[in-house]
Amino acid sequence: MKIRIDDLKNKTVEISDEESLEGYPTLLALQEAGECLFLAPLRIHLTIAREFDHIRVNGRVETSLRLGCARCLVEFRLNINSPFTIFYMRAAGLPQDEDVELAENDLISSTYEGDEIDFTSEIAEQVILEIPFKPLCREDCRGLCPNCGTELNVAECSCGRNDSNFRFSALKDLKIND
């Protein structure tokens, strides 16, 4: 998704679009690696305005994907609805190899060159930031029994496991003499 800078002559531009993953190679790579499965196209809404020496983009990206729970391995659906704001500044004239203290707005800023801005990498980044590192089907997921593999969200196992900590089971019979 791109916009020409000349289209922003003292007016606000709104863009709404639905895009497939083909235009987003980083998201496509996640899906091909088996990290997730995108169930819906990306729904993108951007409000773009020129402000002083920068361009402000307020946006929202929505999609839906299927993930595997990190505890019980059950697949579940995750709906992503990510609002964001990015400030774009022209790359020319910015210091390149200097130590510069960043302001809060610098943390949500990007640069552009030429006469258009491509939003592809920022939109993909917003989706990636919403995908949990350790996805859980629900907050209180109990996972699988480490002995028999029963899914503890569905049923209690009958393998006779106790709730003691297995890491310290070798020390349970340790006796210290004074």
Task: Provide a descriptive summary of the structure in words.
The protein is mainly beta. The protein has 2 domains: 137 residues, no CATH class; 37 residues, no CATH class. The protein is 11% helix and 34% strand. It contains 2 helices and 8 strands; from the N terminus they run ββαββββββα. Strands 2, 3, 4, 5, 6 and 7 form a 6-stranded mixed sheet that branches. The chain has a two-stranded antiparallel ribbon with strand order 1-8. 12% of the residues are buried.
Largest sheet: 6 strands, mixed
User: Distance N terminus to C terminus?
Assistant: 74 Å
Number of helices: 2
What percent of residues adopt helix (DSSP H or I)? 10-25%
What is the number of domains?
2
Describe the SSE topology:
Elements: E1 2-4, E2 13-19, H1 25-32, E3 37-38, E4 42-51, E5 54-68, E6 75-90, E7 109-112, E8 116-118, H2 120-130
Parallel strand pairs: 6-7
Antiparallel strand pairs: 1-8, 2-4, 3-5, 4-5, 5-6
Key structural traits:
178 residues, mainly beta, 2 domains, 6-stranded mixed β-sheet
Summarize it.
The protein has about 180 residues and is mainly beta. About 10% of the residues lie in helices and about 35% in strands.
